[in-house]
C-alpha cells in the first residue's frame, strides 16, 4: 500500500512540474509588444500606432477588437507586428491575412525584395488574440513569440 501511495505521489508531483513548465493561456498585449519590439531585429525602428490608427490601418470595425497593439515601419520596408485581442478570432485572422496579402501586392512592384518577408509572415492565434509578425528573420520572430508563451 505504501509503495502505491509513493508512486501516486511521485506521479502527481511530476504532473505538477510539467504543468508549471507549460505555456500561457492568454496573451498580455503590452508584454508581448515589448518583447517583439525589443527582441526581434527589424530592418528599421518601428513606430507604435494608437489603437484607433491601427484599426483604420487594418480596416477593423470597433466590434472586431478589444485591444490592438501595432508597430509599423515606414513604407520603405514591410516590417511590422500587430497584436489584436478580439471576440471574433476567425474574422480578425482573415483581416490580418488579407492585410499581409495587400502589402505583398503593394511591395511586389515597389520593393520586390520585401515580398519574401510577407511570404514568411508569422500569424499566430492563442485564445482570443491574433498576432501578425513581419520581420527579416522569421525564425527569430517565432522564437521570441514562443519564448513569451512559456510560463
Task: Explain what the structure shows.
With 151 residues, the chain is α+β, with helices and mostly antiparallel strands. It has one domain. Helix content is 51%, strand content 17%. The chain contains 6 helices and 5 strands. Strands 1-2-3-5-4 form a 5-stranded antiparallel beta sheet, with helices on both faces. Strand 4 and strand 5 form a beta hairpin. Helix 2 packs antiparallel against helix 6. The longest helix is centred in the middle third of the chain and has 22 residues. The chain is globular. It starts with a helix and ends with a helix.
Strand tally is 5
Helix content: 40-55%
Which parts are unreliable, with pLDDT below 50 for 5 consecutive residues or more? 4-20
How many distinct domains?
A: 1
Shape: globular
Q: Could you give the distance between the termini?
A: 36 Å
Q: Count of helices?
A: 6
- SS-based structural class? alpha+beta
Adjacency order of strands in the biggest sheet: 1-2-3-5-4
Detail the topology: elements first, then pairings.
Layout: H1 2-20, H2 29-39, E1 47-49, H3 51-58, E2 67-72, E3 80-85, H4 89-110, H5 115-119, E4 122-126, E5 129-134, H6 138-149
Antiparallel strand pairs: 1-2, 2-3, 3-5, 4-5
Helix pairs in contact: 2-6
Brief sketch in words of this structure:
By secondary structure, the protein is α+β, with helices and mostly antiparallel strands. Helices cover 51% and strands 17% of the residues. It has a 5-stranded antiparallel beta sheet with strand order 1-2-3-5-4, sandwiched between helices.
